[in-house]
Specification:
The complex is a heterodimer of chains A (153) and B (236). With 153 residues, chain A is of the alpha+beta class. Chain A contains 5 helices and 5 strands; from the N terminus they run αββαααβββα. In chain A, strands 1, 2, 3, 4 and 5 form a 5-stranded antiparallel β-sheet that branches. Classes of the chains: A alpha+beta (153), B mainly alpha (236).
Chain lengths: 153, 236
């Protein structure tokens, strides 16, 4: 964590672009699989933190003050976009590692086995046709990582 | 509004927004390294709020904002850029403008630094409207339908169903584009600017509810005193 890298990353804040939602392109989703052995094939991918069917107004208002998990979800979207645009190798490595660490940490807090192998994939979701059906395409598949090795303090 | 009054109000509001943001990074689910970066941010933000809220304590906001800026030089590499996109960019912009305004020696330079924030706030709406009207998908309403249909932003599946109401979304798209493009005209008088900022705050509030963008709501309104001061300074 070099402060000089911080200076470089600070520059876009001095002259921001403000081009919010200028185009709406295919959107990434993170899926994961937990495997008991490194040679086991993935039978079922699960969407990471699927959104609820209904979000009540009270929950929306509470999230005005505490929205930690959703904001982390938005960071995962940014990481996925950075990984797919692959500006530099350094960015790709950082994005892959952060995605795996954050998914692993979330699963660990829900009691997942430390000896399981975690694999993630990224899907790009987009509009399929004028009838507003959606389609998705897998664009990234991580290697298998032992959960215990991802659970850094 | 005096420059000092606007600076202090912006500082206090930003400090509270930073405390809210930082607290989210201190939850047990966050890694230790992340918490170690945000614990000082929360503490410095509290000190900044105290420095402007209770001047008798003798805390110098010039030093506290410098310390906060230094803290961000370590936070940015940890996330390899912004954590929360535009909200982080606005957070940093406000912090940098305040840091300059408090630390520059001459009044005109202080005014320039703080006025730059007000100008960027105005541009944040206008440019967002300009890039939308230049895009045929926004003009037809398709872009906003796609935001609801498949983007990562809708906070619930029930909100996604709005994608099946194209006429409503076409009207909403043009309302957003129109407001963002017209916003600079509100700068012409104090009452129109107040009305423009109130509508903008409602817009951010709706985005926070529908898309979970709570940080945008809090941090954008932190910049409002700067444009109110700038309007009075330029037009008054």
């Amino acid at each position: 964590m070099s402060p000089f890298a911080g200076l470089r990353l600070l520059m876009p804040a001095i002259v921001p672009s403000w081009r919010f939602f200028d185009t709406v392109t295919a959107s990434p989703r993170v899926d994961y699989a937990l495997l008991t052995a490194s040679d086991e094939p993935v039978e079922q991918w699960r969407e990471f933190r699927p959104r609820p069917a209904v979000l009540r107004l009270g929950t929306m208002l509470r999230r005005m003050l505490w929205n930690a998990q959703w904001n982390e979800n938005l960071y995962l979207v940014s990481l996925a976009e950075r990984l797919m645009s692959a500006g530099t190798e350094e960015t790709a490595i950082h994005s892959q590692r952060e995605l795996l660490l954050r998914v692993a940490r979330h699963l660990d807090r829900r009691g997942s086995d430390h000896q399981a192998y975690l694999q993630i994939r990224l899907r790009l979701v987009s509009r399929a046709d004028a009838a507003a059906r959606v389609t998705s395409e897998t664009v990234y598949l991580s290697g298998l990582c032992l959960m215990a090795e991802l659970l850094t303090p | 509004m005096t420059l000092d009054g606007a600076l202090h109000l912006t500082s206090a509001m930003m400090a509270l927004a930073f405390i809210q943001q930082s607290a989210e990074h201190l939850r047990p689910a966050a890694r230790l390294r992340e918490r170690l970066l945000f614990a000082p941010r929360l503490l410095l933000s509290a000190l900044l709020a105290a420095s402007v809220g209770a001047p008798s304590l003798g805390l110098d906001p010039a030093i506290v904002t410098l310390a906060l800026a230094a803290n961000h030089l370590f936070i940015l590499p940890f996330f390899n850029g912004p954590y929360n996109g535009g909200a982080d960019r606005m957070s940093l912009l406000i912090l940098l403008c305040l840091t300059c305004a408090y630390n520059l020696p001459e009044r005109p330079w202080q005014e320039l630094a703080f006025g730059y924030l007000g100008m960027q706030l105005l541009l944040s709406y206008f440019i967002a409207g300009w890039v939308k009207i230049a895009n045929p998908d926004w003009r037809s309403g398709r872009a906003l339908r796609d935001v609801f249909l498949f983007s990562a932003y809708p906070v619930g599946e029930d909100i996604r169903r709005l994608a099946s109401r194209p006429r409503l979304l076409l009207a909403a798209a043009w309302a957003v584009i129109g407001f963002e493009l017209i916003f600079p005209l509100t700068f012409l008088s104090h009452p129109s600017l107040m009305a423009g900022l109130a509508i903008a705050a409602l817009f951010h509030g709706a985005n926070a509810c529908l898309f979970g963008l709570n940080r945008f709501f809090w941090i954008w309104i932190c910049a409002y005193p700067s444009i109110l001061w700038l309007q009075e300074r330029v037009m008054g």
